[in-house]
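User: Here's a chain of 351 residues. Predict its fold as C-alpha cells.
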Amino acid sequence: MKKWSALLAVVLTASLALSACGSKTEAPKDGAAGANKTAAAKTVRLGIFKNVTHAPGYVALEQGLFKKYWGENVKIEVTPFDNGSDFSTALATDQIDLGFVGPGPSTNQFLKSKNFRVISGSNNGGAVVVAGKDSGINSVKDLVGKTVAIPTKGSTNEISLRLLLKQNNLNVTTDKSGVQLIARAPADTLVAMRQKEIDATLIPEPWGTQMEQEGIGKVIVPWDQVPPNNGNYPLTILVAGDKFLKDNRELAKGAIQANADAIDFIKKNPDKAYELINNQLKALSGKGMDTALIKAAISHLNLTTDVSKEAIEEMARVSIEAGYIKDVKKEELDLSKFLDLSLLNEVKQGK
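Assistant: Prediction complete.
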C-alpha cells in the first residue's frame, strides 16, 4: 500500500504540473509593452471627445498604436463624449478606464472623487474667441452686456474665458452690467452664431475657423493669446482611473507611448494625419470635416506630452471662485495627487 500511495502522489504531482503549464497565457510576440499585464486584460474602455483638439488620440486609434503597445488580444472599447463633465463622471464611476479630457471638469471631479489621475499631456491650447460679424465686438472689453457661449459649464474653455475677462476687469453677471454666459455644444454654438442668437463664444478649434470662413464671425482673441500662459495651457490631457492604474500599469504606459507616437506622427506627417483625423471624426460623430478646417485647427494646437501643474492649479482657483469647486479654499488647494507623471517620465526614459 505504501508503494501504491507513493506512486499515486507522483502521478498527481506530475498531472498538476502539466495542467499548470497548459493554462499559462502566452505573452504577445509583437513587442507590446508589459506582455504579462496585457495578456491578462480583455477590454480597455477609452474615452475621447468628438473634437479635433483630441487629434493625437484619433491618430493613435487609426494607426493601431494602442494595439501596438497593448497587444492584439486587448479589445479597445471607444466611447465618444461631447463634454468634459460627462467624461469625468464616467471615469469616476468606472464606466471607462482612461481617456482624453480637459483639465477644467476633470479637476472639479477629482476633488470630489479622488479616484483618477493625470498621466500625460496631449495638447496645449487650441481655443479662440469669436465675435459675431455684425455684433460690434472688436475686443474683449466690448463684451460688456453681451451673451457669450461656452461648450459647457465648468469647462476648460469657460475657465479660460473667465481669466480673460478678469484680465480686462470684466465680470460674469446675469444682467447687462457684465458678461452673460450660456452653455452650448460647439455644433449648437455654430448654429446660434449663424442665427445671431449669441454675440460671441470662446470655443475650441476648428469651430472658430469655420465661423470665420463662413463669414459669420471674426476671431478677436487668437489661440495664442487665450489665458493662461497665452495659449500654452493644457487643453487635452490623458487621465486614467486609479483601479486601472493599479491593475494595468504597463497598459497605462502603453497608452502614454501611443499618445507620444501619435503626436510625433502628426508633426512629421501632417498631410497624412489630416486624413486619419477625419476618419475618426466620421467614426465618432458620423460626419467628417473639410481637410482645410482640420489643417487650420492643427496649426492652432501645441501638441505635447508635457503638463503644466501651475496652469492647472490656476484654472482650478478660477473654478473655486466660480463655485464649481465647493468646500475647497483657494489657499488650501492641493493637486499634488491629481498629477502622477511617473509613468510619463518612465516612458521618456525608455523604461
